[in-house]
Amino acid sequence: MVPIAYYLVLAAVLFCIGIGSFLIKRNIITIFMSIELMLNAVNLTFVAFAHQWKLVHGQIFVFFVMVVAAAEAAVGLAIIIAIFRARHTLNVDQINLMKN
Amino acid sequence: MSPQYLWFIPLLPFLGFLVNGTVGRRLPRAAVAGVALLFTGLSAVLVAWLWVTMKAANAPLSMSIASRPWITVPGFHVDFAFAVDHLTLIMLGVITGVGFLIHLYSVGYMAHEEGYWRFFAYLNLFMFFMLVLVLAESFLLLFVGWEGVGLASYLLIGFYFTKDSASNAGKKAFVVNRIGDFGFLLAMFLTIAHFGTLSFSRVFAQITAQPELHGGFLTAIALLLVLGAAGKSAQIPLYVWLPDAMEGPTPVSALIHAATMVTAGIYMVARSHVLFDRSPLALSVVAVIGATTAIFAACIGLVQNDIKRVLAYSTVSQLGYMFMGCGVAAYSAAVFHLMTHAFFKALLFLAAGSVIHSLSGEQDMRVMGGLRKRIPVTFWTMTVAVFAIAGFWPFAGFFSKDEILYQTFASNNPLAKVLWAVGVITAGLTSFYMFRLWFKTFFGAERFDEALLGQAAHAGAHPAGHDENQHPHSHGVHESPWVMLAPLVVLALLSIIGGWVGNPEALGGHNEIQHFLDPVFASTAHAEGALNADHVSHGLERGLAAVSLLVAALGLGFAYLFYYRKPGTLGAKSANSGLYRLVANKFYVDELYYFVIVKPLESGSNFLLENVVEQGVVNGSARALAFITRGGSNLTQRMQSGNIRSYAGWLAAGAAVVLFIMAVTSLHLR
To answer: How far apart are the CA of A70 and the nearest CA of chain B, in angstroms?
Structure first.
């Protein structure tokens, strides 16, 4: 049996990669992907703990997270396409109409 | 009469106040006057009924009702209670009776005024508080009435609030009274500290039960009460507000500043006589204050030219008499004078109001004269009042003033003879200045210009009283309408016969009023300042009466000489002398107070309060707060860059910090 710490460390690493790329990357698609990465890192911990404690709650939460992530992907991608049509760019630093 | 009806005596005028104060603005004038008169009249009827039933019962006249407890804390308890005894009954009669007459008079006098409803609402409010004051069964409830009449007085003095002098006079009255109230409050605290109650009956019962109590804290309480009384009753050193209070409409001067409110101080001293009887020092202070005020105010009254100011100083002087009476423990004489004074001084003010009314707002006696034929009813009623206050037999003032002088002369007070002499001199001065007013107003040449009457007042040259704008249709000198004359006639009758209830035995009477009040002041018989039995004799009393009659006649004679036979002789010679200027400027007391008290307070406020407290503390703290906020937001607004990724960075950093703290604390817990 794989110890839970492995899963947790893996999830933490994935989450940190997600945060890092979210902060560094300028391309909206990449940022979007990093959000998914963070969500999935959380999912991994949920599943790991569910397995550890033999409880089903964690798995149910994972389903919720996946549903929300799917909905978010649908809406988010639609927004990205709309933005690209309007601005011809995917660089977040240039999408700053709300600033000032 | 069931005691429960007592509540209605003050509550009816209050109802009138509520009606006129809330919807009066929209009511026609007749309805406003009707409401005010109805509720005051009902109250007077109740008092009359009370009087009749109590007389019929022939019981030891006292009645009290306690409602539920008012204030109850450990060690201290006050009921919201009213009580009636002989003293209260007389006060009730004076307040509701004279009050009703003055309400009636005001209907005519104020007929052309703005704010008719406001005037009657205030007047009813005053009646309410004054009735509470005399009905109260405890110092605390008395204080409620005491403050209430002060409020009503303030509102009515400043009735013409658009005029600077009127609103200033109102403020002055309020502030000066506050000094007296301070003394009253301290007296109440001392009473609570020593007796644990403020109820009259309980405090006085405790004092009576402890014959060994003398002076000491009783003197302290009594002296503080005297301070309160001096404020309300316009005695030295707090008399300065009353002459200025003449800025109010004349009926107000008659009701509040002559007949009722200013006598509250005398009532309070008489009410607490048990306390005063135990403190010869306090009694002497009262007597000396009274005598000094009497002669001091009479001197100032000699040279005033404003008809209402003469009467104002005369009021101060007469109140001084009453104080003097209280001071020699002749409480019933003082209350007697209070009653007759209410009659003739209200009459004097109302008649003066009628004169002012007839001259369309003119108050300066120098431009009056010769009015005898023009306004005969006013003239004759005024004549009665002048003879009454001057102390001529058989008018009311003779009996009451003489009673006070006699009791003063015969009292055990070491200063008795001096006080008496001052009183007699004051009587002469009173007679002189009242007849001066009489001659100047009603006799001699007509010094006013009928065509200019309305305009002279319009120019605003005369500071006090009757409002300038109230007679748009000035039609020369005119007698007042009957609603104003009827109260004058009634009061004139009272001023003639009112004194006979106190006709002393020496003059063949029975002195009913003194016997009537005996149950209230019974304990006084043994007081130290009181009448010395060795000195009492009918011969002495007759002799003293003759002396004061002679003095009054002298005053009349001199006034006749200087203001009727050879008018102007006195004025021309003395007008430039230093003494005259000193008196004409009221001994510079106002100026003295200004420089000794007002000015230092003002500069102190300007320096300390304005520069240190206002600028430093109040503004400073606000500025500091603003500075901190601005600096903080200058720093933090950089965070709001609009850059999503920097927000995300802050979010991540925050989460990291939270995580770190959680990790550390959970380690600790382990």
So the answer is: 22
DSSP for B273-320? HHHHHT-HHHHHHHHHHHHHHHHHHHHHHTT--BHHHHHHHHHHHHHH
**Residue A54 to chain B, least CA–CA distance (Å):** 25
| A59 Rama sector, left if φ>0, alpha if ψ -120 to 50, beta otherwise | alpha
Q: Which residue has the tokens 């004038």?
A: B29
Distance of CA B147 to CAs B198, B252, B261, B624, Å? 17, 17, 11, 41
Q: Which CATH class is domain A4-94?
A: mainly alpha
Cis bond upstream, residue B13 (ω within 30): no
DSSP codes joined into one string, B418-457: HHHHHHHHHHHHHHHHHHHHHHHHHSSS--S-GGGHHHHH
Angle (nearest 5°) at CA A30 between A29 and A35: 95
The whole-angstrom separation of Cα B55 and Cα B461 is 52
Q: How far is B647 from chain A (nearest CA, A)?
A: 9
Three-class secondary structure of residue B584 per DSSP = helix
Q: State the burial class of residue B318 (Cβ atoms within 10 Å of its Cβ: 0-12, 13-18, 19+).
A: buried
Report the Cα B72 to chain-centroid distance in Å: 31
Structural domain boundaries of chain B? 3-469+477-584, 591-632+646-669
Distances (CA, A) of B160 to A77, B467, B624: 78, 7, 44
CA distance B61 to B556: 42
DSSP code, position A91: B
Asked if the Cβ–Cβ distance from B641 to A99 is below 8 Å, we say: yes
Contacts of B35 (CB under 8 A, 6+ apart): B16, B19, B20, B24, B27, B120
CA distance B200 to B275: 10
Check CB contact under 8 Å for A23 and B644.
no
AA letter at B467: D
Q: pLDDT tens, B427-461?
A: 999 999 999 899 888 887 777 776 555 554 443 33
Q: B44-89, pLDDT tens digit by residue? A: 999 998 888 877 665 555 666 656 688 888 878 888 888 888 888 8
Q: How far apart are CA B269 and CA B19, in angstroms?
A: 34
Q: Is 80 exceeded by the pLDDT of residue B15? A: yes
The CB-based long-range contact list for B451-458 (8 Å cut-off, 24+ gap) reads B453/B359, B453/B360, B453/B362, B453/B477, B454/B360, B454/B361, B456/B362, B456/B367, B457/B360, B457/B361, B457/B362
Of B641, B644, B652, Cβ closest to residue A92:
B644
A80 and chain B: CB distance < 8 Å anywhere?
Answer: no
Of A19, A23, A100, which is closest to B642 when you measure between CB atoms? A100
> Does B648 contact A at CB distance below 8 Å?
yes
pLDDT digits (tens, 9 = 90+) for B473-510: 445 677 888 888 899 999 999 998 888 887 777 777 77
Give the other-Cβ count within 10 Å of B655's Cβ: 11
Question: CA–CA separation, B356 vs B375, rounded Å?
Answer: 11
Distance CA A67, CA A53 (A): 24
Model-level ipTM above the cut of 0.85 = no
Residue B437 CA from chain centroid, whole number? 23
* Helix, strand, coil tally for chain B in percent (to 5): 75, 5, 20
Cβ count near B379 (within 10 Å): 20
Q: What are phi and psi for residue B65, nearest 5 degrees?
A: -130, 130
Residues with Cβ within 8 Å of B224's Cβ and at least 6 positions away in sequence, in order, are B183, B184, B186, B187, B190
In the three-class reduction of DSSP (H, G, I as helix; E, B as strand; rest coil), residue B67 is classed as strand
Domain boundaries, given as residue ranges, for chain A: 4-94
Residues in chain B: 670
